[in-house]
């Protein structure tokens, strides 16, 4: 199984003359099928950690393992391949390609993977139904609400059955009702597919659902607690 | 710096790549325009000078109709005297009298039909370069000697050289049979095959004698100091002609109508091409300015909400275009002018130019000069058309509704 | 890779129409550029081809045979025998469309009032009418009946300057091989019009046998003019004929007979290429600009696609496909416009206001635009190839974005 294991990750950024610490010797292990919330204030390092795990960014030091594969030293192309096949992403906003319809957005990853047209069609239809977007398959993002757009993003993230879904502030732009629905969706997908969910957020509504909460501050893990979800 | 100017300048450099690309399009076209127009203007001046200098002169006094028919009896009475009067009254030395006819010229071995021209030996070199282009022997000297100078190709075809005799057979002015034996004293090599194949000159007095011309001749050739003096001199000459004589003055344009038309035809096709380049640049500017306006919609909405009139924003857009166009103009003139200067030293040629040049009496390598008109004309038009192209984007601002604009993404 | 091209092209196509104003402006520019490339080329080609056709028709033919000295010394003595044997066989071979032999000497023609030097051509009317202009352009009177016809045909301009006309007598003087004056009176039986005054002034025609008798040259001639199927490709015919003629002859194709016209063909090829490239370069600034803007506006999307695992090469491909789509549509419109503007002009464009200027260039007063497939293909290929090259830089930049930086760019 694909356990995520981070060992002593360090990452600093240059902002003008300032050195900003993103990650400061972070070590963490996340089992397959966990539902983890990374909680931190702005600049606390949660997005940096998420990006590192997702292979979008490379740490300055330390190791990242997914299962028995070390990913922090992979080439760009291999990283793209790894993201394509193992990881689904849901970002805060601008999640969708504006010129593609909901279905085409969902099929996008499968297109790149080279999945046949029939299979793409079947899977995208199923997954759009699963996230509750039946009938909206042929709409373009501009014609959908924020919540619907995030659902499309979720559908896209899970359609190729990744081992984990990384979500960065997925509820930031949503009203609380829509946000709750989205979290419900995450929860049910987590249960059903045993997909690992790692969600970076400071939204308390989300935190309440998590079984494990990793609190970060100034690039360090300050608390790692397990709880019974609400 | 003026605030509007400052703002326009800053706005221009929000997208340096885009601005440079647009300026690049202008500079590219400007360099081509400066280079081509300098080349063309230089070539035209040379075409005119070279063509006229060889033989035609800047204007000729003739009997009406002679220009087209070139009949011997379309002649000017007492021509040498009229020539002398003109020379004196105009205070121009470069005036010469000629007569011409066609005759069969025979050497020992060959006979050819040629055009033979009677010239005033002491005056001819003032209006024509041919007396200076002798390959062998000397030019005519004695106005009363039965001598002839002929072109090099003609000499070869007739198998004659300096010292040989030619027999001329033809008709006199009255239609009677005319014949003469003349000595070849010089061979002209102008480098122009058509001319070298046909030219034959003998002293006017002898010509008049042989062909029963009396004191008549066919043309009085006038060369002015500069092409720009032609119109003025022509008027003076017209005033000096005897009142009762049926004579006309033709300027070079009438004598060589092909020359001006060749230039016009060449310019017309060239302007079609330049027009296309200029339109393409204008589209480039239109595209850039429209993008620039569209992406600032929200910003414009805010300043309009603050009370700025659309007209001022429109002027800002025009000012930005002016700055961009000004840079395109300056750089285009700079690089284009530089290119012309470099080629002015090293010369310019292209494959096939030699044959083309021969057709128009031109050297096969051309050295363009930097002149104000070709330097500024093209870039100026590009600049103006750029401004015209930005009118639409600027005018669109009048349609802008502040509230909607502020909401625009 | 093939499968992903589907999504790449779909994205490129939809992105192309996102900023439809910009696309329309660029499309208009490309269409105008392509139209100008092809239209101008068609005009220039038409002019030069007409020049060549005229030149070829104005006596030289596609290939000419002379005495080896004749071109240097066009005298009556540098004559050649009528083609026989191997040469005759070569001339009768199927690759020769028509041929004619001529007597051609310098002469003086006199009316009772005026004399002019001209070139006298003794022709076989039946053969000559198949290869040169005279027979078609008789304006008054008649063409020669046969080789023994003792009338003369002169140009209209010459008739005017000589003050003569149809039915009147003129005297033609030349020399025989012994340099004795050969002269006799002729009756003007025909007057021809030609495209240039120079032709009307320079050439007079009589029967070949009549001229041979006048010049006392038996049945010898001075020139054999030959027409093949296509003036652009005279080499094979030329080689066969050259091989069939013995020493002492000179065999030359038209482009060497008239080096000015021959060079013009080459200069035109160069000009067409330069013109197409220059127009493309003028377009390329706008094209690259459009792509740069398009990429700039879509940084976040590009970042997203990269984050989702799209390979950079496919981002590159997407921008290039977008650029090529734009160019292809522009090419289609431009080609159509060029065709639409050339077709109604097939009848010729009258430029007679500058007729004498065109004559200086060796061209006629009517321009017939000619759309050559090879030129159209060249223009299209150049636009696509250079368009591809021009798109590489913005496309490359787009593919080099770091996904997270691109995504978080505001």
Low-confidence stretches of chain A: none
- Rg measurement of chain B, Å: 32 Å
Strand order of the largest sheet of chain B: 2-3-8-5-7-6
CATH architecture of the domain at 4-94 and 164-226 in chain A: 3-Layer(aba) Sandwich
- Biggest sheet details of chain A: 6 strands, mixed
General form of chain B: elongated
Number of strands of chain A: 10
Mean pLDDT score of chain B: 87
Global mean pLDDT of chain A: 87
Largest interface: B-C, 72 and 70 residues
- Oligomer designation: heterotrimer
Strand order, biggest sheet of chain A? 6-7-8-3-9-10
* Total individual domains of chain B: 2
Model description:
The complex is a heterotrimer of chains A (230), B (409) and C (410). Chain A is built from 7 helices and 10 strands. With 230 residues, chain A is of the alpha/beta class. In chain A, strands 6-7-8-3-9-10 form a 6-stranded mixed β-sheet, sandwiched between helices. A 4-stranded antiparallel β-sheet of chain A has the order 2-1-4-5, with helices on one face. In chain A, helix 3 (102-113) packs across helix 4 (117-130). With 409 residues, chain B is α+β, with helices and mostly antiparallel strands. Chain B has helices at residues 3-12, 16-56, 66-69, 79-90, 121-127, 152-158, 193-198, 204-210, 230-240, 252-255, 257-295, 297-305, 310-346, 353-359, 372-389, 391-396, 402-407; strands spanning 59-62, 95-106, 111-119, 134-137, 147-151, 165-171, 177-188, 200-203, 219-222, 248-251. The longest helix of chain B has 41 residues, at 16-56. With 410 residues, chain C is α+β, with helices and mostly antiparallel strands. Helix content of chain C is 54%, strand content 18%. Chain C has a 6-stranded mixed beta barrel. A two-stranded antiparallel ribbon of chain C has the order 11-12. In chain C, helix 2 packs across helix 12 and helix 2 runs antiparallel to helix 14 (373-399). The radius of gyration of chain C is 31 Å and the shape is elongated. The interface between B and C is large, with 72 and 70 residues.
Task: Describe the protein's topology.
The complex is a heterotrimer of chains A (230), B (409) and C (410).
Chain A lengths: L3 E12 L2 E13 L4 E5 L6 H8 L7 E6 L2 E2 L5 H11 E4 L11 H12 L3 H14 L15 H14 L4 E5 L7 H18 L2 E6 L2 H4 L4 E6 L2 E7 L4
Parallel strand pairs in A: 3-8, 3-9, 6-7, 7-8
Antiparallel strand pairs in A: 1-2, 1-4, 4-5, 9-10
Chain B lengths: L2 H10 L3 H41 L2 E4 L3 H4 L9 H12 L4 E12 L4 E9 L1 H7 L6 E4 L9 E5 H7 L6 E7 L5 E12 L4 H6 L1 E4 H7 L8 E4 L7 H11 L7 E4 H4 L1 H39 L1 H9 L4 H37 L6 H7 L12 H18 L1 H6 L5 H6 L2
Parallel strand pairs in B: 3-8, 5-7
Antiparallel strand pairs in B: 1-9, 1-10, 2-3, 2-6, 2-9, 4-7, 5-8, 6-7
Chain C lengths: L1 H15 L3 H38 L5 E5 L17 H7 L6 E13 L4 E9 L1 H7 L6 E4 L9 E5 H6 L7 E7 L5 E12 L4 H6 E5 H8 L7 E5 L7 H10 L4 E5 H4 L1 H39 L1 H9 L4 H31 L6 E2 L4 H7 L4 E2 L5 H27 L3 H6 L2
